[in-house]
Target: Phosphoserine aminotransferase
Amino acid sequence: MSPVFNFSAGPAVLPREVLLEVQGELLSWHGSGMSVMEMSHRGKEFMQIAAEAEEDLRAVMGIPANYKVLFLQGGATTQFAMVPMNLIRGHASIDFVDTGHWSKLAMKEARKFGVSTHVVASAEDRGYCYVPAQDGWQRDPQAAYLHYTSNETLGGVEFPFIPDSDGVPLVCDMSSNFLSRPTDVSRFGLIYGGAQKNIGPAGLTIVIVREDLLGQTVSGTPTMFDYKIQAEGDSMYNTPPTFAIYVAGLVFKWMQRQGGLKAIEQRNIEKAALLYETIDTSNGFYHCPVEKAYRSRMNVPFKLAEERLDEDFIKEARARNLLQLKGHRSTGGMRASIYNAMPLEGVKALTAFMQDFARHHG
Model:
């Protein structure tokens, strides 16, 4: 069978060697006679899996000792509520950077908690194709925290910098570029993200939170939504997403074998550069709407000059085993998600097809 390259925005491609590990251990993990899916989350076998997963994530990302790592459920969308529940801490407002779909949804949820959602800067004026320069942000020094989305999956806009928060806790929805490059965790109060892009199966959400921000939830916060309780229970206040944690742990080990985040970042730069070059040198046949300085390395949106060719493009791509290239329903066009596990060969196969398609239909 010819290789299939899956460009889905999520759930997304996983490293093939990790999937083979999962296959080999599916019926009996390390000779235990049990699948990970059958294990008690409080048994010694799974406790070992969970402890190793956290240890390896801390090593890969360089997470300082004064940060808690939580393996939760509910996706990043649930964090739109959990973050304000835990981090408002008596403040009257929250600062947001508005760069598109997901940052807008985070703001919408935060408004439900009786605080002002203050937009420090918005990219709406140019159709969400860039990140506003930080020197023009209108910050509230008394805000509970400053929130931004480091990579907008739909729009393909990525922050090329970590914002300065001037002492206000910095909160980041890092879902779609989590672990795609080195990150100075010490600059953040809290990082969160769904696992289904670069980390593992859907169903797992990772939260990395500084310890001093724990324990001051708003009145009425459900027990399950209290970061302090989750931290004290090692993310096991209830049954956690055990299989997803196990697969994520294997991915963290795979990342270490790849040379860590510096090496992974270089491969991501190479893949993105190849795809954007193909778009930019197509003499207008393809077009990326994102300004060059803010183009995502993970999610590459592009449109054909003639929309009537979209259906043919998808059909012919599928015939060459290039899958999940249709853009989000709200944006149209195409979108190629090239997360860590997408090999360079996959991007080369896509760009070769794009060049052939342009020659035949241009």
User: Anything to note?
Assistant: The chain has two domains: 16-257, 259-361. The longest strand covers residues 116-122. The chain has a mean pLDDT of 96.
